[in-house]
């Protein structure tokens, strides 16, 4: 879901075979890069980010795999998010990845300058762009990219871990928990699905034993059980789950 969202913003599509999909580090890096670009645009920036099309994304993935190592030390909350912090790639053995990360750091500084209206670090600090100000004037950037990314994403209401805080459309109030918002590409064994898929309404349950009423050939008979609930919970589908539990599976008339 998150990889699809990143690809939609950056302009590429990805295939993730079973057991050979993108790693947590790859998804985390793409998520922070695409999230920063989305945040900059939503805040009104017109700056063009460093190009990251299909070829660049492949180079980025190869560079992340080649960098290896475990988690980089996380200080001051700068490394919060999915996968390895971006600062770990500034010293990558892959030159293409190093060059891209430095160009991306310069982009973050220019976005902060555009949105604040200032060019020097003191002006940026006055407007609350402390992390971006730390990158100004550095001949070679060795750290601080993660902090600048988090600073920009937080201003746009994004969370570094890839989730967003949604609002209730009726009241305007924020929901209690963050929600994963993405774009999913899913391909299953369609030749098997065609033989098995069928329409079946989830009918009323008996009041005491909570067993589905009626039989296969009539309405009902299909239990919406724990595993189906877990599947929905795994996707954070709170509203779908609520509808299923209150409308579809309860014995409304008996209740």
Automatic annotation (TrEMBL):
Keywords: DNA-directed RNA polymerase, Nucleotidyltransferase, Transcription, Transferase. Its EC number is 2.7.7.6. Residues 147-218 form the DNA-directed RNA polymerase subunit 2 hybrid-binding domain. SUPFAM superfamilies: beta and beta-prime subunits of DNA dependent RNA-polymerase. GO terms for biological process: DNA-templated transcription. GO terms for molecular function: DNA binding; DNA-directed RNA polymerase activity; ribonucleoside binding. InterPro entries: DNA-dir_RNA_pol_su2 (IPR015712), DNA-dir_RNAP_su2_dom (IPR007120), DNA-dir_RNAP_su2_hyb_sf (IPR037033), RNA_pol_Rpb2_7 (IPR007641). Residues 220-253 form the RNA polymerase Rpb2 domain. GO terms for cellular component: DNA-directed RNA polymerase complex. It catalyses: RNA(n) + a ribonucleoside 5'-triphosphate = RNA(n+1) + diphosphate. This is DNA-directed RNA polymerase.
């Amino acid at each position: 879901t998150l990889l699809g969202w990143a690809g939609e913003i950056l302009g590429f599509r990805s295939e993730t075979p079973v057991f050979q999909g993108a790693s947590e580090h790859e998804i985390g890096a793409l998520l922070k890069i695409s999230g920063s670009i989305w945040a900059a645009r939503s805040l009104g920036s017109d700056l063009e980010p460093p190009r990251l099309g299909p070829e660049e994304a492949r180079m980025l993935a190869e560079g992340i795999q080649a960098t290896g190592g475990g988690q980089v030390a996380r200080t001051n909350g700068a490394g919060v998010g999915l996968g390895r912090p971006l600062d770990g790639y500034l010293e990558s053995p892959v030159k293409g990845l190093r060059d891209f990360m430095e160009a991306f750091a310069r982009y973050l500084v220019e976005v902060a300058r555009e949105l604040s209206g200032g060019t020097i670090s003191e002006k940026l600090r006055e407007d609350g762009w402390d992390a971006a100000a730390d990158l100004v004037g550095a001949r070679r950037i060795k750290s601080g990219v993660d902090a600048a990314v988090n600073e920009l994403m937080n201003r746009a209401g994004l969370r570094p871990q890839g989730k967003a805080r949604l609002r209730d459309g009726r009241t305007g109030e924020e929901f209690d928990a963050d929600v994963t918002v993405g774009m999913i590409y899913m391909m299953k064994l369609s030749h098997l699905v065609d033989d098995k898929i069928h329409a079946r309404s989830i009918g009323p349950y008996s009041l005491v034993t909570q067993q589905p009423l009626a039989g296969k050939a009539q309405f009902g008979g299909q239990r919406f059980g724990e595993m189906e609930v877990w599947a929905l919970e795994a996707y954070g589908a709170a509203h779908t789950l609520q509808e299923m539990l209150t409308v579809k599976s309860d014995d409304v008339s008996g209740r």
